[in-house]
Design brief:
The chain has 107 residues and is of the alpha/beta class. Helix content is 39%, strand content 20%. It has one domain. Strands 1-2-3-4-5 form a 5-stranded mixed β-sheet. Strand 1 and strand 2 form a beta hairpin. It is globular, with a radius of gyration of 13 Å. The chain starts with a strand and ends with a strand. The model has no long low-confidence stretch (mean pLDDT 85).
Length: 107
Amino acid sequence: MIWINPSDERVAAVFEVEHTTSIYSGIVRLLDLALGGSAEASRGLYLVAPDQREADVRAQLARPAFSRIGELRVRFLPYSELEQHRHSMARFGQSMKAIEAVARSLG
């Protein structure tokens, strides 16, 4: 999913949702977009997945093939954080601030 900022029509964030598909494939899709697109596409990169897949995400990011991904500040957004905070985000959120507050650093 790509979040477009309505005020300037620029990419604010990219969310790769990995429910049952491969974490590896999701990371590759994020990298393709970040490295092949515009500079603003790499500002907010999120892997969204069930909480129990966080270890899988971290294990994939530890692979040598993804050694430079830390420079892109990819973050993990677990389902539980979205579930717990979704009403507040919908009510008060107008920017990426709420998402950034609940996302977990992977670096």
